[in-house]
User: Fold these one by one.
Assistant:
Number 1:
Amino acid sequence: MFPVALGLGAATCIGVANICAGYASRRVSPLLVGFWSQATGATLCAVLLLISRPPLVAGQLVWGLLAGFAGGLGMALFYRAMAAGAISLVAPITACAVVVPVMYAIAAGETPTLLVSIGIVAIIAGVLVASMQPARIEGDLARAGVADERRVLLLAVAAAVIFGVFFILIDLAPRADGWGTLWTAGAVRLSGFSVQIALLARARKRLTGPGRLAPAIITVGALDLISLILISIGATTNAYGVVTALVGLYPVITALLGVLVLGERLTRMQASGATLAMAGVMLVSV
């Protein structure tokens, strides 16, 4: 039951964080959302490190910093996609990131199972189906009239690829027991925060406070960190496969919240493509 609780807890945290991030990104610049959410996560992680003072394993910081760089870029693209399109469409497409480490493993000599192979085909087919019929997204949070959905899908696919690289890099980090995983998480957050600072500077965008959106943005940073900790703890159990499979449910939570809470509406083609991609993610994650 413990691995199940870890997986479902992490999936819920990620799903709710995505909705909060998408909500905020449609009201202020996605760059500001990324900056303040990463700042929140980095601060909380630093506090936990000061309290727990776990031992540092050689290599944790290096791989954590590299992974955080990829994660920061992926997050920027992900937030831009959610700001312009339906979150219930973007989340399942971005969740296809799980296929990247699988392809990496295949290239390294591993032989995929039948379910994984079917999952990869389903993911590719789902993305293609979802991109075949651009149409108006009738969300009450939409900034513009007709969203440029092909651009949104390209952003979501690009975010998925970069998030996939993040998963590969984080897997290369040395294992640590208990709270020792915080060193890797801290390095990830520090590097990701640096990416957000660089993107803000490049865009020459003035840094402003989160204002009335502070609760949503702080929630994003806190839930992202909690999910990372839960997954890291799951990696120390004997049922990590169960944990990762259940974490793969997060796009289901995000999509449902997008429809039920934000009132988003997708075309049948988009919904079918998102569902097919989501099913592929589940197969690959098993």
Number 2:
Amino acid sequence: MNEKRTNTPSSRTHGPDLILHPIRMRLIVALGAGVPLAAAQLLERMPDVPPATLYRHLTVLRQGGIIRFAEEPAPRDAGERRTRGAVERRYVLRAGAASLAPEDLASATPDDHLRWFASFLASLLGSFSRYVGAGVPDLARDGVGYREVVLQLSDDELVQMSIALNTALMPFVANTPGNGRTARLFATVLLPADQRSTGSATRSAE
């Protein structure tokens, strides 16, 4: 995908267009654990991305205020990364910067929404493709599943469900790496069902 290199923000270099890009979403997810990572470490996690492309997207995210440089490590810090003898700067995700606010979407057109949703789906498809391509997939063993279910909800019930889900998820979102934990990607999509959909029809693969 060709991108213009410019220091002037445009509709494609800030807001949803900044975040909802397959490679940039992977970088955001990688940094989402809160551990500062150098570009070389990110390349280890994304070996299919050319180094020049990764560096370009890191620059776009940093200039857009989504990520920043971590504090420089102390001399001889065991966690420092060196590239050709020099300490390589590490990146961290700015708190809350990768979340979209209502004002980010206020002036969006239907085409904008379709483009952003397509980017989201492309990122999700890429993650699933890398999972199944890494070996023989075992959805039960790996806890992998995807499901579509139609819920009959009033506006008040929708709010109640959202609060309940957030309350249930927040303790786990706060988990840090380690203690035998495996990073797992949890993605959600919520939208009005087509009126032709039947009440409680469910299609799933788990």
Number 3:
Amino acid sequence: MNRRSFSIFDYTSSTGVMSAPRSRKEEAYRRILEIVLSGSLDNDAFLNEQPLAEQFGMSRAPVREALQMLCSERILENVPRMGYRVVPISIRETLDAIHVRLLLEQESVRLACRNRSPEALAKIDALIRQQKKIEEDETSIHSWILQGDLVHRTIAELSGNMILMRTIVSLIDLLRRASIQLLLGGVDKPLEIHYHMRLLEAVRRGDEREALELVTRDCQILQDLIWRQ
């Protein structure tokens, strides 16, 4: 059985810099996924092979393969004679995903607090510096969610459990799409104190109790945003 082997986060470092994919198909996959997760598509918009191939400067074959892979993952669906559109995500599915993500992230936080190598601490320090600037300058709720996703992805990576990390990343991708679809009504970024930097600092200290409280509160903020829709 074919399983998803990469995600947008597989090309993203903890500083948010995109790294090169390994093949043209993976490049097409990454770029199409970026379009989907950016929130730039209208709900009734369709993607088509030829325009995407021209935009990416490649043949239609890798674009077609990437589109088919995204369909197999239920990110896109193929509508005959129309093209590919984003699969809608229900509020129920979104809330279920938040619940499962919290359970998994609680474990990743515990492991990350215990696996604080010098390399891990350096990665956390770099992300804390980045978060300080974001908290000062950022006003877009989608950018706020994107940067928060990067924090959660990094902590999952630092857990050292690759299966756990991949599962969390898959849920992050799904919830990013859900946030784009469900928050298009113009919801403002939460006014509460930001939890992402405090979460990183707690993990850096190895403070499991505080880190668990913060990751729980962070997921609760997202759940509250969804319930308000």
Number 4:
Amino acid sequence: MDLSDESTGGQTFDLTVAAVDEEALVDDTAGVVAVDRSVHLAGAEGALLRADEIVAGYVPGVDILNSTDFYANEGELVGIIGPNGAGKSTLVKAIFGLLKVRSGTVTLAGKNITNTEPHRLVARGLGYVPQTNNVFQRLTIEENLEMGTFLRPERFRQRFEFVAELFPTLAQRRRQRAGSLSGGERQMVGMARALMMEPHVLLLDEPSAGLSPMLQDEVFFQTKQVNAAGVTVVMVEQNARRCLQICDRGYVLDQGRNAYTAPGTQLIEDPKVVELYLGTLARAR
């Protein structure tokens, strides 16, 4: 599997309608303004993970994602933010095969994985940590990590050593039942279990949700550590400002469509993003 990086060299792609020339805009039949996809196509060339024009939803005839584009280059930490109901979690669920993609394509390392079953995606190098129900509460930490290698149990010892370096507290408390852990500790177990299969890409769905500010900081720190260890990370977050502070590049979704994408630090300073998204989301925190 060729996982070579052909990143765009830090280019900024602003997909907001306000920043696109009028010639690039097309009104669809619903009266929604569409954006020229050339910037996405240029940035996604050679990406490790990409999604093109994804349409998906939970109820027949009702689409949450409306031709959503996304990509992550090898080694990137990519954040996905936006208001409630924007389609953030829906996007990662569609990528991971938990939600049927009605149209569009998802590719991993150049291979089409659209609507592939989750356990097959795990075997192909895609990991996922849900927002809730992310541990087996009656099992110990060690048993949870063993479940992470259920497809290849012979790799447990080797992968446990790797995970123990990233999460030393979990290794020290390996005999403790996961149900007795705090929310932040459970999030660490969920991340550690997903890493047991040595994924190329790790999808995190709202990892800081419901946690205290101190535990949120711990989750963001550990996410950076996982990324620094060589894992491409895609993180959906409601704590928009904190997410953009640590990610290499961020996406802002609005009503299932791409509104903006740029380096995280640049999005934090963008007046339109601050006014339309960060201000409201920051006040919610």
